[in-house]
Design brief:
Elements lengths: L6 E5 L3 H13 L3 E5 L2 H5 L8 E6 L7 H10 L6 E5 L4 H9 L4 E4 L4 H33 L3 H11 L4 H8 L3 H15 L4 H10 L15
Parallel strand pairs: 1-2, 1-3, 3-4, 4-5
């Protein structure tokens, strides 16, 4: 995605602050969407592009920190830059410990704000790229047959073809065919590549260990 597709979301009950931040954001080629309250933000259409949320700490009704917690609890991962008219250290520590990118005091330093926004957008872009890559791996894994998934599990656990064949009641040749299909469908270039894919998918090597050889 290009930088211009990213969106900066501004939530502040002060119209003049919203407009000033939006003007600054647009001056560097970014899109800006403004909201007077968290509720107005939640009622808007969520855009599927890299985002950064500029959030005032003190808002009517739900505070910025409460809104941050609500977003986290709902699984909505948006990098947040807090702004406040008061230099409240305990509040800033709480916000940063909860994952905020930065806690800035008003009047805002424009360069500090832009730096925080750029960091937030890059983090969101990286998160989205990771999520997209994992979704692609999941799609490949879902294309495997049940038998191929069994072979996949044994292969990434380090099982040799002979042991896998004995455990599954198959011939070694059949296991080799399934193994080849697994590598092809997963687009893995090597066993190490396949193991990394299993790790990224959260498929722990060892969930289905081949039997130990008999002595």
């Amino acid at each position: 995605m290009s930088e211009k597709q990213a969106v900066v979301l501004v939530v502040d009950d002060d119209l003049s602050v919203r407009e000033a931040v939006a003007d600054l954001v647009r001056s560097v080629g970014l899109r800006a969407e403004t909201f007077a309250s968290p509720q107005e933000f939640l009622e808007s259409k969520q855009l599927d592009v890299p985002c950064c949320l500029i959030l005032d700490v003190r808002l009517p009704g739900r505070s910025g920190l409460e809104f941050q917690r609500a977003l986290t609890d709902s699984g909505m991962e948006i990098p947040i830059v807090f702004m406040s008219a008061h230099g409240d250290i305990p509040m800033s520590v709480r916000a940063l410990k909860s994952g905020a990118i930065e806690f800035l005091t008003k009047p805002l330093n424009e360069q500090q704000l832009l730096d925080a926004i750029n960091l937030g957008i890059e983090r969101d872009r990286a998160r989205r790229q990771r999520a997209s890559a994992i979704a692609e791996l999941r799609k490949r894994f879902d294309s495997l047959t049940p038998r191929e998934r069994e072979v996949f599990s044994f292969v990434v656990s380090g099982g040799p073809n002979k042991q896998i064949a004995a455990h599954l009641g198959l011939s070694e040749m059949t296991v080799k065919v399934h193994r080849s299909q697994v590598m092809h469908k997963m687009r893995a270039k090597s066993l190490v590549d396949l193991v990394r894919m299993a790790d990224r998918l959260g498929l722990a090597a060892g969930d289905a260990q081949p039997p130990k050889p008999k002595h």
